[in-house]
Amino acid sequence: MSGTLNKVILIGNVGAEMKVHQFDNNDKIGRLPIATSESYTDRTTGERISITDWHNIVVRNKLVDVFEKYVSKGDKLYIEGKLKTRKYQDAEGQDRYTTEIMVNEFTFLTPKSGQANDASDDRQQEASSQSSEPSNNPSPSTSLSEEDPDDLPF
Questions:
Q1: Which residue segment(s) compose the domain that 103 sits in?
Q2: Is residue 2 part of a domain?
Q3: Is 154 inside a domain boundary?
Q4: pTM for the full model?
């Protein structure tokens, strides 16, 4: 393969409400943290250890509207995007770097309680229509652990 690829796939939980910034030309950018966790048992002590990593997620323009309307703290999301590193200066003038995931596509994995299935379907259709590529991801009410291995989309 002679080309390169910059692709990130995460399944995690939203850690805080999205912070939105609107520019003069009506473009929007939204930022929010997503947590991914893994756990294992320490062989020497038998203790269960859990490790959580935090990821900076960035959505732009129409996806910001979908996230503002439907995504809240604690929701589980499937995120596809690319890594981007930004350089900025802090208050003391020191150069700082941050790595973010620029979202191309996402799927809701947490069904919203108290909503009818029609509302959940509308939410998924709106999110799919806003993403840049057609989604082949599981529906919002499908749990990844419940999938039949023979029905995988790849």
A1: 8-147
A2: no
A3: no
A4: 0.68
What are the phi and psi torsion angles at 85 (to 5°)?
A: -105, 130
64 falls within a domain: yes
Tokens 């203790």 locate to 47
Residues linked to residue 30 through DSSP beta bridges, in sequence order: 20, 59
Give pLDDT tens digits for 111-132.
876 444 444 455 555 555 554 4
Does 3 fall in a domain? no
Domain tally, the chain: 1
Angle at 118 between CA 115 and CA 124, to 5 degrees: 95
Residue 121's SS3 state is helix
Compute the distance between CA of residue 88 and CA of residue 30 in angstroms, rounded to an integer.
Answer: 17
Can you tell me which residue has the tokens 């999205």? 18
Report the CATH number at residue 103: 2.40.50.140
- 22 forms beta bridges with 28
Cα–Cα distance list, 121 to 67, 74, 104, 106 (Å):
15, 20, 20, 15
Q: Secondary structure of the chain: what % helix, strand, coil (to 5)?
A: 20, 45, 40
